[in-house]
Write a structure and sequence with these properties.
This protein has about 190 residues and is an alpha/beta fold. The chain has eight helices and four strands.
Length: about 190
């Protein structure tokens, strides 16, 4: 028996499988509607759910969400090439992709390296939400993105959300990468409003 492996199959992202799973989770918890907060793929998941089930999402807070701005793929090749051949390659890749500083963000960097030592991330391109799908979001939406995000075009994300989501607040943090820290209070304020 294998230990520590992810499920042998993952829900298809270009279907309603993830939303059906979240329906089951909410139903099991006895929750009819809720606010959702997500980062990166979790942001894509929350956004996908809000697009498919807008009546169940009261507020939506997203940090560096996938599926809005262009997904950058160059970091994957760099990470895959660096990792097996260089000592500290995984740490170096994590710093580049997440936008973390080796000294200032040591604890977060250690956590990212540990996670990716034992985790096989999705590598496929995320489905991109259409302008019409984004226009269909009627709940308040907060989007926080890093201007130096190595995974997603954060400037395009910010622009599309501002143009398409009528009840949106967008924060672009110019010197931040994909890992966004220090936003707990603004998100909590948004959720309390």
């Amino acid at each position: 028996m294998s230990q520590g492996l992810s499920a042998p199959s993952r829900p298809a992202l270009d279907s309603d499988a993830v939303s059906l799973w979240l329906d089951d989770v909410l139903e099991g918890l006895g929750i009819t509607d809720a606010a959702f907060v997500g980062t990166s793929l979790g942001g894509w998941t929350a956004l996908d759910y809000a697009v498919r089930r807008p009546e169940r999402v009261t507020r939506l807070a997203l940090m560096c969400p996938g599926g809005v701005g262009r997904q950058k793929v160059g970091w994957i090749f760099k990470a895959l090439l660096t990792r097996p051949f260089r000592r500290g390659g995984l740490r170096e890749s994590a710093m580049a992709v997440a936008g973390l500083d080796a000294e200032k963000d040591r604890q977060a960097l250690d956590a990212v390296v540990l996670t990716f030592t034992h985790f096989n991330p999705r590598r496929e391109k995320l489905p991109v939400f259409s302008d019409d799908a984004l226009r269909g979001l009627t709940m308040p939406v907060l989007v926080i993105v890093g201007g130096n995000d190595a995974m997603f075009d954060s400037h395009q994300t910010a622009r599309r959300v501002r143009e398409c989501v009528s009840r949106s607040t967008v924060k672009l943090l110019p010197e931040v990468g994909h890992a966004v820290f220090g936003q707990a209070e603004p998100i909590a304020e948004f959720l309390r409003a």
